[in-house]
Amino acid sequence: MTDPWWLRVARSAAATAILSIALFVAAVVYTSTGGSARELLVKELLVNLMLVLGLQVFMGNTGILSFGHLAFAQVAAYAVAICAIPVATKAQQLPDLPFGLGDVHFGPLAATLIGVLVALALGAVVGIAVARTGGLAAAMITLAVLFVVDQVVKNWQELTKGAGGLSGVPILRGTVWLWLAAALAMFVANWFGETRAGRFAVATREDEIAAPSLGIGMFGARLTAWTVSIVVIGLAGSLRVQTIGSTNPRQYTLDAAVLVLAMLVVGGMRTVTGAVVGTAIITVGNETFRQLGDPQRLDIERFPDLFLGGALLLVMLVRPGGLLGDVDLAGWLRRATRRPRPAAERAAPARSAALVAEDVEVRFGGFTALDGAGLRVQPGEVIGLIGPNGAGKTTLFNVVTGLVESQSGVVRLGEHDLSRSRPHEVARAGLARTFQNLRLFANLSVRENVTIAALAAGRYRRDEPPVDVDGLIAAAGLTEWADRQARTLDYGNQRRLELARAAALSPEFLLLDEPTSGMSDDESAAMVAQVRTTAASVGAGVLVIDHDLAFITRISDHVVVLSEGVVIAEGTPDEVRRSPAVAAAYLGTHA
Amino acid sequence: MTTLLQNLVDGFGRGSTYALLALGISLIFGVMHLVNFAHAELITVGAYVAYGLSTRDVNWWVLIVAIVVSSVVASIAIERVAFRWVRNASPFTMLLTSFAIERLSHALWQVLVSPKKKSFPGPGWAFDTWKLGSVRFEIMDLLTIAITIGVLTLTALVFRRTLFGIAVRGAAEDFDAARLMGVRANRVISGAFAYAGFLAGVAAVLILMRSPTAEPTLGADWLLKAVVAAIIGGLGSFSGAVVGGLALGLAEVFLRSYLPDGTPQRLTDAFVFGLIALLFIARPSGLFKVATAERV
Questions:
Q1: Do B284 and A137 touch (CB under 8 A)?
Q2: pLDDT tens for residues A379-434?
Q3: What is the pLDDT of residues A66-120, one digit of tens each?
Q4: Residues A265-284: pLDDT tens digits?
Q5: What residue ranges define each of the domains in chain A, with the CATH number in brackets?
Q6: Are the Cβ atoms of A136 and B235 closer than 8 angstroms?
Q7: Taking 80 as the threshold, does the pLDDT of residue A350 lie above it?
Q8: Are B232 and B248 in contact (CB under 8 A)?
Q9: Chain A neighbors of B93, CB-CB under 8 A
Q10: How many Å apart are CA B56 and CA B64, to the nearest integer?
Q11: Which chain A residues in 267-306 lie under 8 Å from chain B, judged by CB atoms?
């Protein structure tokens, strides 16, 4: 990912080529033993694959459920139909075609392009809403869009001929174009996974709070993934109509959407390989079960549904991440061809800005969490923030990093006022944090966790010298596990990884919330050295909360004591230890 | 004025069915963060049980009991055989599990009974009309309103006064904390599914009294509206589900009657869903936001 662009393109192309060849060989073997019905199935598989890949680019990377992608495939299909049906046929089918579309006629390539553009135009509007909301609400918006498009298509007789659909679209000869389009879709999906935008989208999928804390804006990351996915799904719709020669609303119902969804999740939605495998399994399985049904009876649909429900249920119960989980050809290629960069000798950048919080007041309902607290961290300095449970330490962190809004007070980084900034703006300004209860990108590898932060630094903190990802991993003692998924690490290593990830943003200040919590005495002693070297390597000052007084005493230049929302003492560790107010706060004696 | 009253009655009739279903969905979401897309399959279960019994000339009063009981039993059974195994999985996995069950249910009824509609005689008296001034009520309308109010009152009592109800509400707010206080997870979740099954059973009775037919995809028509209603209300919020259901029912009926005459019937749905999309853009967490302070 920090690899050069040509290597990333080459990898995406290689992954696409391998998957395409595997599919092609399977298809040749399959069709050589049967008649034209089998060729039809191959076409269906390729169309399904494009639909699934379109969905994968969005859902797989952002983790947001979408029922509505088929709506855009449908829009593209109708746009293509209206552009590509010969003028004479169109005059018969659609005599009242509005906007002078009756005289329009384009070749397959131009029509496909128009289909994609029309889908994109509509998709962009919906995408803004989806990217803004996220979560279940976004899923509901996509569901609503699916229905609205369905109803409009069924009712706008002049344009769509209603529920009967349009026919007479020129059919593409042979399967070459379909193969090329499917390969293109695969390439786009693989390539998106290699881009910075793709990695950012994955970060938002993995943790909605950690991603902004690295400067990644949720809206932008989601909208980018959405836009790319709409292009792919628009291509799928355009080719579907030109493969079948007709289009109608029955191809794009909620049932069809669930079918595509099942193809994606059965194989594993997080990867392109998973999407390909899932599509193949469900398409072939569906067809097999369809042949089991008795065509003389009305109920030929029952067997495919039985298969679909059974397969989906089984996968969810046994392997909820899909059959392949995170096993991915592109990911494997990425690890295999990674070009380790020689660690550039980098001088820690000179910093001059101080982090200042003044008179911060926060109330949750009737409870006053912070009552005029404040502190100041000079560049390169390490400040310890201590206090009894409930003193407001984490709340102060949350105010500084924009997660909690204060009723009054000021937060400044140098001349930069951050009092009303959102979390990703705070991170871009140069504050990186860790979390008390660990917020790693759990399904990503150790290296990917750190690399995403380094990519964010490369995008939003351009004045900084490039970050040495491998160096940070080594400083955290994680080189050995660099390719392991973060969630498989033990607790201490997860904490060390979170520190390395925060440092990779190349921040002015690191804010560490209980970095030694859950660690043994030996580990927390070692943490003193790791925090100091890591911070020094990126030239960051440190503000650290901890309960371990030995750790705080050894690491801090200066200690601030918070109790019941106010600063009750500050000074060197020794001064603070001798302060009667601190003893009173901790032990409850009235000095 | 007459149309207004008539619309109110119709809207409330539709809306209360949505509300009963949405309440069940919201209840289950509250205890285990599952958006249950299989919930409306309980209606289908009730419908086939009623159809099966009615071929043996069973009295409608018995049918009503049978519908509710079968729905409760099916709800508990689905939790035992499927949802229990994904209880600790992500909400996404659970949602897809419920989708799988919905598909399987559609397929199984087709295989076991028939893909065709099976109608059976409804209670004739339900459609006797009753006039108040110039407004004409069907007995069914009044029954719907009475039953809904009754069930909602009962629900309020159960969740405010009984130990089970308090345990469920506690679990809905913070399951881990509730467990530490001695609430037994299996019992609370089974109980929640049983109660959701009861609510779906009552909704099934109302639906089947109006149109006594059983078909494999009967549930699908109601499901989406119920899910949408629950999410409009704010998943996990019980009063939200009721308000969401009623609002959706009223919106449908009023839109249908006030959209210009030329508007095709089916386009009303497009308007309803358009409004819903706008609502979610404005308020992503629904009307009644359930406080879930995430610790950071």
A1: yes
A2: 989 999 998 888 888 999 999 999 998 888 899 998 889 988 999 999 999 999 99
A3: 999 999 999 999 999 998 888 888 878 877 777 777 777 888 888 999 999 999 9
A4: 999 899 999 999 999 999 98
A5: 5-251 (no CATH), 355-587 (3.40.50.300)
A6: yes
A7: no
A8: yes
A9: 316, 320
A10: 15
A11: 298-299, 301-303, 305-306
Does residue A591 surpass a pLDDT of 50? no
Q: Residue A185 has which token pair?
A: 């879709």
Note whether A316 contacts B102, CB cutoff 8 Å: no
Nearest to B104 among A136, A299, A310 (CB): A310
A397 to chain B: nearest residue by CA? Answer: B296
On whether residue B124 sits in a domain, the answer given is yes
Q: Which residues of A touch B110 (CB under 8 A)?
A: 299, 301-302, 305
Which residue intervals of A195-345 are DSSP H helices? 196-206, 218-244, 254-267, 272-292, 302-318, 329-337
In this predicted model, which residue has the larger pLDDT, A33 or A324?
A324
pTM of this prediction? 0.88
The Cα–Cα gap between A499 and A519 comes to 14
Query: Could you tell me which residues come within 8 angstroms of residue B9 by beta carbon, excluding any fewer than 6 positions away?
Result: B135, B137, B141, B145
Between chains, do B115 and A310 touch, taking CB under 8 Å as contact?
no
User: Touching check for A308 and chain B: CB below 8 Å?
Assistant: yes
Instruction: State the Cα–Cα distance between residues A397 and A517, nearest whole angstrom.
Output: 16
Closest residue of chain A to B98, computed from CA coordinates:
A313
Give the residue, A181 or A583, on which the prediction is more confident.
A181
Backbone angle region of A511, left / alpha / beta, with phi > 0 → left and psi within -120 to 50 → alpha? beta
Question: For residue B117, which residues of chain A lie inside 8 Å, CB to CB?
Answer: none
Question: What does the angle CA A348 – CA A353 – CA A358 come to, to the nearest 5 degrees?
Answer: 140
Q: Would the pLDDT of A300 be above 60?
A: no
* Mean pLDDT confidence for A584-589: 73
With respect to residue B173, please indicate whether it lies within any of the assigned structural domains. yes
Among A residues 228-267, those touching chain B with beta carbons less than 8 Å apart? 254, 258, 261-262, 265
3-class secondary structure, B136: strand
Stretch A125-149: mean pLDDT: 87
Contact B281/A63, CB-based, under 8 Å?
no
Q: Coil, strand, or helix at residue A299?
A: coil
User: How many Cα atoms within 13 Å fall on the side-chain side of residue B127?
Assistant: 9
In-domain check, residue B150: yes
What's the CA gap between A557 and A541, in Å, rounded?
A: 11
Beta strands B213-214 and B118-119 are antiparallel
Radius of gyration in angstroms for the set of CA atoms belonging to chain A, rounded to a whole number? 28
From residue B203, give the alpha-carbon distance in Å to each of A431, A498, B64. Answer: 54, 50, 11
CB-based contact B115 A301, cutoff 8 Å: yes
Residues A309, B107: C-beta atoms closer than 8 Å: yes
pLDDT in tens, A545-579: 988 888 898 999 999 998 888 898 888 988 888 88
Report the residue of chain B nearest A150, measured CA to CA. Answer: B270
Residue B292 lies inside a defined structural domain of this protein: no
Q: How many domains does chain B have?
A: 1
Q: Is the dihedral of CA B228, B232, B237, B240 positive or negative?
A: negative
Residues 121-140 of A with CB under 8 A from B: 129, 132-138, 140
Residue from the list B97, B266, B273 with its beta carbon closest to the beta carbon of A155: B266
Q: Name the residue range of residue B230's domain.
A: 2-282
Do B108 and A135 lie within an 8 Å CB cutoff? no
User: Residue with structure tokens 């020669």?
Assistant: A245
Question: Quick check: A305 and B107 CB within 8 A?
Answer: yes
Q: B89: which chain A residues are within 8 Å (Cβ-Cβ)?
A: 316, 320
Cross-chain residue pair A147–B269, CB shorter than 8 Å:
yes
Closest CA to A410 of A367, A361, A352: A361
The CATH number covering residue B227 comes to: 1.10.3470
